[in-house]
Structures are given as structure tokens and as C-alpha cells.
Write a structure and sequence with these properties.
By secondary structure, the protein is an alpha/beta fold. 42% of the residues lie in helices and 16% in strands. A 7-stranded mixed beta sheet has the order 3-2-1-4-5-9-8. A two-stranded antiparallel sheet has the order 6-7.
Length: 347
């Protein structure tokens, strides 16, 4: 299945689509009959001029319906789109948004209940973000609390200090690769500390604000939903293909997870991130060969732990179901005793 098919999911040409930042590579082009509202940061002519030196097909750039550079997305688009969009498509957009929680909440204003958000995200392990740590829910919450519309000093510094290439490439994929090499001298990162663009809110500078693996993205979406901050649920996730992975997120109807099950699922996803990190280490440092020579197979141990947590989660679910049934009989007996007046003899 190609990436366009993955991103389109199950939508058809009769449904309302909103595509954010399609640039020169639209997923649902209006020219092909899709009912797409195009959102981008510049006009069609400006985008064509921007991408002309990149040797891409600028003729594929379509008319931009809404120019969005700042503020809430749902306030930038026409009001008649509110709660009427069937699917938002965002290919390599979410990682750039300074306030990702704000975007998710805006998307909830646009997408109907049961509608979807279809995204492609770079896997931080297989692109220039490979030295940067995974994004936590706490980092997303802080950016939302500050209502960021420009990238923070942390984001700017980390991008300049830790971005790397492998064999001259900005992105590669899940395969053995050479040693990552830092892209910029440290002086470039140090200069961000006194940059007036960062401190005085100057012209927008674009960076990757967030770094995810598949398990890491599942975790932050789970925790945001558990806190009632988001009404989006991951319903489909495809493993990394080349340097990116694909996710379908549906809006609404998320049941509140039992606290015990939530805790087990969070721990499972954290362990899964360690497995993903071990895969990255294997590909970059060649530890897979070292393991084969007789060293401790950490990867296998972590996989076993994840499987054990899955088993425990199933056991907990069965126990909770049994308790619910058993307590139902106790409650009925208690109501019978109270009704007969016998409850006065209890304590």
C-alpha cells in the first residue's frame, strides 16, 4: 500500500476533506475531484516561488483556500466548516506545530464526531532528529499552557545542536546505517541563546518541535485523552516505512479507561519505546552483531517484558470483570437486607 492510500484511509471524493500544508505534494488534490479545503502558510504563487529552486513539480501546487500563519486553526477557516469536516490530512505537519495540543483541540472543532485525522510523522530514530529525545506529554502540556505560536528557545537550540545526517542524508529508515554526523557547529546552537528572533517574537523560524516513535505517539495521545484534554483516539497505526509512520486518529466516543488498565497500558508503551530505541541502537552502533556474539540480548528481554505486561493486562481485565459480577450479587443481597429492616443489625 502506498503512502497516499494510507493517508486517504477510507474517505471518498464526496466527503469533506481539509488538508493542512500540502505544498507541492497534495494527498487529496482538488484537480482529481476531491472535496478538499486547502490550508497552507502562503498563497499558491508564493509557494511556487518558494519551491522553484527545489526541482519539484510546482504545477501540482493548488489554490490555497485558507492562509494560516498564526492563532487557532478553527478560527482561521470559514465558519461553515465547523463540525463538518470528515477528515483532516496532515502529512509531516504535526511535528512542526509549536502548540500541538492546541491544534488537536482546533481539529475537534472542525471534524465531526466519528471523523478522522490522518497523519504522517517522521520516526525520530530514522531522520535528522535521531539524537533528540522522545517527546513527553508534559512537554506538550507546557507548550499549550504557554499558548506558543513561535518555537521555544529549547526547540531552536536542540535543532541546531543535535540535528544529524547519515551518509549525507537527512532521513534514512530502519536499516543498518553509518555513524550520524552533526550538521552544524556548536557555535550555531550557542547563538540561539541570544537570538532576537527567539526572544522578541520575530519572524517565524521553522523547526521540528516534537520527536515521536510509533509507541511514543500512542502514549501521548492516550495520556491526553485520559486527562480529558483531547477527544482523539488512535485507531490505526502503521509501522515505519522508510523514515515515516502513518496514523489514523478518530474523534469522540473515547471511554474512560479503568485506572489500573491505564497504568498497565502506559507502562507497556514506555517499555515499547525502549524496544524501539534498542532497534535504533542496533542499526547505528551495530550491537545486533555484538549480541549475536554472546552479549546480553536486551532487545529480547524488553520484548518479553512487553509480552508479560500484555498478559497481565488481560488477567487484570478478567479479574475486574469477575469482581463486577461478584459485587453485583453482594449489592443485591444488601438491598434485600435493607428492605427487610435487617440492616439495622449490621454495626
Amino acid at each position: 500500500m502506498d503512502r497516499v492510500t494510507r493517508l486517504l484511509g477510507t474517505v471518498n471524493r464526496s466527503q469533506q476533506i481539509l488538508e493542512i500544508g500540502p505544498g507541492y505534494s497534495p494527498i487529496a488534490p482538488k484537480a482529481d475531484g476531491w472535496q478538499t479545503h486547502v490550508v497552507d502558510h502562503a498563497t499558491r504563487d508564493e509557494l511556487r516561488a518558494k519551491y522553484a529552486p527545489a526541482n519539484v513539480e510546482t504545477d501540482l501546487i493548488e489554490d490555497v483556500d485558507t492562509i494560516w500563519r498564526d492563532g487557532a486553526l478553527h478560527k482561521a477557516v470559514p465558519a461553515d466548516l465547523l463540525n463538518r469536516v470528515d477528515q483532516i490530512i496532515a502529512s509531516h505537519v504535526l511535528e512542526h506545530i509549536p502548540n500541538l495540543v492546541g491544534l488537536l483541540q482546533s481539529a475537534s472543532q472542525l471534524v465531526r464526531l466519528g471523523g478522522s485525522l490522518s497523519v504522517a510523522l517522521p520516526d525520530r530514530r530514522y531522520c535528522f532528529d535521531c539524537f533528540r529525545p522522545w517527546t513527553t506529554t508534559g512537554a506538550l502540556l507546557e507548550a499549550h499552557q504557554r499558548n506558543l505560536t513561535r518555537h521555544s528557545l529549547k526547540t531552536a537550540f536542540d535543532h541546531m545542536a543535535y540535528s544529524a545526517t547519515v551518509d549525507g542524508q537527512l532521513a534514512w529508515g530502519p536499516r543498518p546505517v553509518g555513524e550520524p554526523l552533526l550538521m552544524d557547529p556548536f557555535e550555531a546552537a550557542a547563538s540561539t541563546a541570544n537570538s532576537p528572533v527567539i526572544h522578541l517574537g520575530g519572524p517565524y523560524q521553522d523547526y521540528h518541535a516534537w520527536q515521536f516513535t510509533p509507541s511514543g505517539f500512542r502514549l501521548v495521545m492516550l495520556e491526553l485523552a485520559a486527562m480529558g484534554i483531547s477527544d482523539w483516539e488512535v485507531t490505526e497505526l502503521h509501522s515505519p516505512e522508510n523514515f515515516e509512520f502513518f496514523v489514523i486518529i478518530r474523534r469522540g466516543g473515547i471511554p474512560r479507561m479503568d485506572p489500573v488498565r491505564l497504568q498497565v497500558e502506559r507502562q507497556r508503551l514506555l517499555l515499547a519505546q525502549l524496544v524501539e530505541t534498542q532497534e535504533q541502537i542496533n542499526f547505528i552502533l551495530g550491537t545486533a552483531e555484538a549480541t549475536a556474539a554472546g552479549k546480553i540480548d536486551v532487545h529480547a528481554e524488553l520484548v518479553a517484558k512487553v509480552a508479560d505486561h500484555d498478559r497481565r493486562l488481560q488477567e487484570l481485565s478478567e479479574t475486574l470483570a469477575w469482581l463486577s459480577t461478584a459485587l453485583g450479587s453482594v449489592r443485591r443481597a444488601w438491598r434485600t437486607l435493607r428492605g427487610s429492616g435487617s440492616s439495622r443489625n449490621w454495626g
